[in-house]
C-alpha cells in the first residue's frame, strides 16, 4: 500500500505502526528513522490514529524538518515544529470506574469501612455483569484497593473481557515478594495487565462504627449524629475518616499515580468503593462538596470516562451486551471493538 | 422428644442450645444451667440415624450430671467452658481440617508455568471454587488460612459463599500499623459471627524461578524434556533460581506446625485454601509420606479434602460428598450433629 520512495532527504520520520499481533494497538510513537538513500520518495499516506487493518501493518510516516546531507542520528528526534501535520496525535485513553457489588456486611446492614469483607453471591454476579459491559473496552492497567471485595470484582469482571489478556497482581510488599513474582517471558508480559493494589483507594475508614449495625448505631448515638457522619462532607465518625479525608488520599493517589498512566495513553480500570470513587469523580467532574454528597454510585455498573487532552469526558455507563444498539464512544473505541470482533471470527 | 423431669439435684447441665435463625451467640458451646428446682429428672437422648436421615426433632439434650452440691447459685454464663465455640463438647480434642486446592487459573489455561506469579482464576476456576464450597457447606470452619495469591484467596471466599453457617470471613491485615488499625471491628457480636482469614506467603505455590511465565512446550524445547521433567517431578532439584518441592515443603510445613496445628489443638476447625505443591507438602506431613510417595501424589483441583485432628493425630477422611451425591453421611458423630444443627437453624 505504501510505496516507499525516499528522496535524498534526511529527516526524522515519525512512525506510527499498527500491528495486529499481540501488540495490538501498540503505538510506536516518535521512532526516528534515518533515511539516507537516494532516489526514494516517500509516499505518505496519512492514516488517522488507531486504524489498523487486519493483515498488514500500515505505516504512517511524517516528515519533520528537512535537512541536507548531514546524517542525523536516528535516535535523535528533531524538533517537531516544522510541518503542517499535527505531530503529537491527540492522546486519548479510557478510564473505567467500577464500584464493587454487595458484600456480606452490606447484606447484614453493618458499617464496613476498611474491614476486609468479601462479596456475596450477588456481589459476584454483579462483578461478572459489570465485566460483560466493559468486555470491549481496552484495559492496559488496573488499580484496586487493598480490600478483597474490590480485587475480586476486578478479577471476576476481567474473566469476561474479550481481549483475554491476563491480569497479574503486582507484589511489592517485600523484596522476596517482588523477586518471587517475576515473569521471565516477554511474550507473556505483553499479554499481561498489571494490577496494582493501593490502600489509598480503600473505602472511607469508618472508625468506631466498623462492624456496628446501622440501626443499633442510630439508637445508640441518635439518628442525626449518624446522619452527620454518613452524609456530611467533613464530619468524621469517632476515630474514622470524613469524606473529605478520604478524598484527600484517594484523589492524591489518582493524580500522582493514575493520571500519568492516562496521560501516556494507557487505558485504565479502577475497581474500588463508594466513597473512594465518589472522591475521584468529584475531581474528574469538578464537583462541589455539596454535589458530591448527593452523588450515588450504582454498584457493579461501570462508569466510563475518556481522557483526552488532559480533560476527562464523562461517557456514562457502557451498555450491557444484551441491550439494543451497539455504539461506540469514540472512534478509537469503535476500532478496538472491531479488532476484537475480527480476532474472534 | 426429651421429656424433662428434674430431680432435686444441683449439678451442671451441659446442654446443646437450640439454634434460631436470628443468630445465636453460643455455637454448640457449653452452657451451665443451675438447677435448683425439686422434682425434676432429665431425660437424655441423642438421636443420630446413621443412614441418611436426620431426625428433625426439637431439642436434644445431652446431660451430664456433674457434682451434686447444694444451694450455691452458679451464674449461667460464667463457666470457663462457655467460650468454646467449636461445635463440639467442652474442650474437644477433635477438630476438622479442610484442604482445598484452587481451580483453573488463567495461566493453567494457557499452559504457562505459574509458580508465585499472582494470576487469577478463570470462569472455570470460579465455578470449581463454588462447587468445592457446596461440598463443605456443612463442615464447621472457625479459621481460614490462604496463601498470599489471589487465586487461593478467591477460592476460599467463593467457597464460603456456599457455607450454611453463614459466618463472615474477614481477611486480617497486618502489613502495617495503619492497616491493622483501619481494619478493626467494634462489635463483639459481629466478631463472633466472623471467621478470621489469614494470608501467608508460606502457603504460596512452589516458586518456579526462571520458568515463571514460560510456556511448558517452549521450556521443554529450550532446556530439554528430561531437565524439565526433573524440575517438575523431582523432590529436591529446583528450577534455576526457584524452589524444589523440598524447599517448598520446608516453609509450608514449618508454617503449618507453627501456626495452624496449634489452632487445631485448641479445637478450632480450620480450612486451608492453597496450591498443589504447598498442599502436597502439608499432606506429606499429615500422612507421613516419603519423598517418593509425595512426588506421585496428585491433588484434584477444587475438590476439598477432609482430615479430622484428634488426640494429636490426623485422620484422613477423603473428600466430602457433593450435595447431590447419594447418601449423606457424617464423618464423625460431632460433624453429624453440627450438620443437624444447621438443618434446624435453616428451617
UniProtKB/TrEMBL annotation, chain A:
Presence of the UniProt keyword Manganese in the record: no
EC number: 5.4.2.11
Key words, A-Z: Glycolysis, Isomerase
Pfam families: His_Phos_1
Top-tier EC class: isomerase
Record-linked InterPro entries: His_Pase_superF_clade-1 (IPR013078), His_PPase_superfam (IPR029033), PG/BPGM_mutase_AS (IPR001345), Phosphogly_mut1 (IPR005952)
Transmembrane segments: none
Source organism, top-level taxon: Eukaryota
SUPFAM superfamilies found in the cross-reference section: Phosphoglycerate mutase-like
Record HAMAP family: PGAM_GpmA
PANTHER family, alphabetized: PHOSPHOGLYCERATE MUTASE
Family named by the database record: Belongs to the phosphoglycerate mutase family. BPG-dependent PGAM subfamily.
Name recorded for this polypeptide: phosphoglycerate mutase (2,3-diphosphoglycerate-dependent)
Organism annotation: Hevea brasiliensis (Para rubber tree)
Amino acid at each position: 500500500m505504501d510505496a516507499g520512495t525516499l528522496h535524498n532527504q534526511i529527516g526524522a520520520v515519525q512512525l506510527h505502526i499498527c500491528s495486529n499481533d499481540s501488540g495490538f494497538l501498540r503505538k510506536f510513537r516518535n521512532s526516528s528513522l534515518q533515511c539516507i538513500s537516494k532516489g526514494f520518495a516517500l509516499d505518505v499516506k496519512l492514516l488517522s490514529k488507531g486504524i489498523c487493518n487486519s493483515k498488514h501493518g500500515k505505516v504512517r510516516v511524517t516528515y519533520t524538518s528537512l535537512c541536507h546531507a548531514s546524517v542525523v542520528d536516528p535516535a535523535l528526534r528533531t524538533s517537531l515544529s516544522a510541518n503542517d501535520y499535527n505531530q503529537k496525535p491527540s492522546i486519548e485513553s479510557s478510564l473505567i470506574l467500577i464500584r464493587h457489588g454487595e458484600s456480606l456486611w452490606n447484606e447484614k446492614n453493618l458499617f464496613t469501612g476498611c474491614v476486609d469483607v468479601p462479596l456475596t453471591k450477588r456481589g459476584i454476579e454483579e462483578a461478572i455483569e459489570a465485566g460483560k459491559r466493559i468486555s470491549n473496552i481496552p484495559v492496559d492497567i488496573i488499580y484496586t484497593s487493598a480490600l478483597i471485595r474490590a480485587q475480586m470484582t476486578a478479577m471476576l469482571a476481567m474473566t469476561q473481557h474479550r481481549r483475554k489478556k491476563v491480569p497479574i497482581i503486582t507484589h511489592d510488599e517485600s523484596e522476596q515478594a517482588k523477586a518471587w513474582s517475576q515473569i521471565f517471558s516477554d511474550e507473556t508480559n505483553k499479554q499481561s495487565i498489571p494490577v496494582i493494589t493501593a490502600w489509598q483507594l480503600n473505602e472511607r475508614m469508618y472508625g468506631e462504627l466498623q462492624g456496628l449495625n446501622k440501626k443499633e448505631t442510630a439508637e445508640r448515638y441518635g439518628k442525626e449524629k449518624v446522619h452527620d457522619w454518613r452524609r456530611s462532607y467533613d464530619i468524621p465518625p469517632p476515630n474514622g475518616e470524613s469524606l473529605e479525608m478520604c478524598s484527600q488520599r484517594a484523589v492524591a493517589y489518582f493524580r500522582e499515580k493514575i493520571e500519568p498512566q492516562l496521560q501516556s495513553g494507557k487505558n485504565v480500570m479502577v475497581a474500588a468503593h463508594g466513597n473512594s470513587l465518589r472522591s475521584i469523580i468529584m475531581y474528574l467532574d469538578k464537583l462541589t462538596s455539596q454535589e458530591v454528597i448527593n452523588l450515588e454510585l450504582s454498584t457493579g455498573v461501570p462508569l466510563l470516562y475518556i481522557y483526552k487532552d488532559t480533560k476527562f469526558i464523562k461517557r456514562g455507563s457502557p451498555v450491557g451486551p444484551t441491550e439494543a444498539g451497539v455504539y461506540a464512544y469514540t472512534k478509537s473505541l469503535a476500532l478496538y471493538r472491531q479488532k476484537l470482533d475480527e480476532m474472534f471470527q | 422428644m426429651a421429656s424433662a423431669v428434674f430431680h432435686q439435684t444441683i449439678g451442671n447441665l451441659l446442654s446443646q442450645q437450640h439454634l434460631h435463625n436470628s443468630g445465636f451467640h453460643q455455637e454448640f458451646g457449653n452452657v451451665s444451667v443451675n438447677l435448683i428446682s425439686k422434682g425434676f429428672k432429665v431425660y437424655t437422648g441423642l438421636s443420630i440415624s446413621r443412614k441418611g436421615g436426620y431426625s428433625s426433632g426439637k431439642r436434644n439434650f445431652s446431660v451430664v450430671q456433674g457434682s451434686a452440691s447444694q444451694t450455691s447459685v452458679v451464674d449461667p454464663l460464667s463457666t470457663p467452658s462457655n467460650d468454646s465455640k467449636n461445635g463440639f463438647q467442652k474442650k474437644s480434642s477433635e477438630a476438622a481440617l479442610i484442604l482445598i486446592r484452587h481451580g483453573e487459573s488463567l495461566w493453567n489455561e494457557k499452559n504457562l508455568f505459574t509458580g508465585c506469579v499472582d494470576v487469577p482464576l478463570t470462569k472455570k476456576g470460579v465455578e470449581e471454587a463454588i462447587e468445592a464450597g457446596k461440598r463443605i457447606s456443612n463442615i464447621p470452619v472457625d479459621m481460614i488460612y490462604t496463601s498470599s495469591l489471589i487465586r487461593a484467596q478467591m477460592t476460599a471466599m467463593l467457597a464460603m459463599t456456599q457455607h450454611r453457617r453463614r459466618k463472615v470471613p474477614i481477611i486480617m491485615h497486618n502489613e502495617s500499623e495503619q492497616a491493622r488499625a483501619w481494619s478493626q471491628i467494634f462489635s463483639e457480636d459481629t466478631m463472633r459471627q466472623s471467621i478470621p482469614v489469614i494470608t501467608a506467603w508460606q502457603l504460596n505455590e512452589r516458586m518456579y524461578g526462571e520458568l515463571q511465565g514460560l510456556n511448558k512446550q517452549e521450556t521443554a524445547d529450550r532446556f530439554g524434556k528430561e531437565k524439565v521433567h526433573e524440575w517438575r517431578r523431582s523432590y529436591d532439584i529446583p528450577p534455576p533460581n526457584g524452589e524444589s518441592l523440598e524447599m517448598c515443603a520446608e516453609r509450608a510445613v514449618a508454617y503449618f506446625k507453627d501456626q495452624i496445628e496449634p489452632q487445631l489443638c485448641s479445637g478450632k476447625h480450620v480450612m486451608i485454601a492453597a496450591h498443589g505443591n504447598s498442599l502436597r507438602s502439608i499432606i506429606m506431613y499429615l500422612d507421613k509420606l516419603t519423598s517418593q510417595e509425595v512426588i506421585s501424589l496428585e491433588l484434584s483441583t477444587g475438590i476439598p479434602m477432609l482430615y479430622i485432628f484428634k488426640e494429636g493425630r490426623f485422620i484422613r477422611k477423603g473428600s466430602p460428598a457433593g450435595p447431590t451425591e447419594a447418601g449423606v453421611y457424617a464423618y464423625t458423630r460431632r460433624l453429624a450433629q453440627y450438620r443437624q444443627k444447621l438443618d434446624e437453624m435453616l428451617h
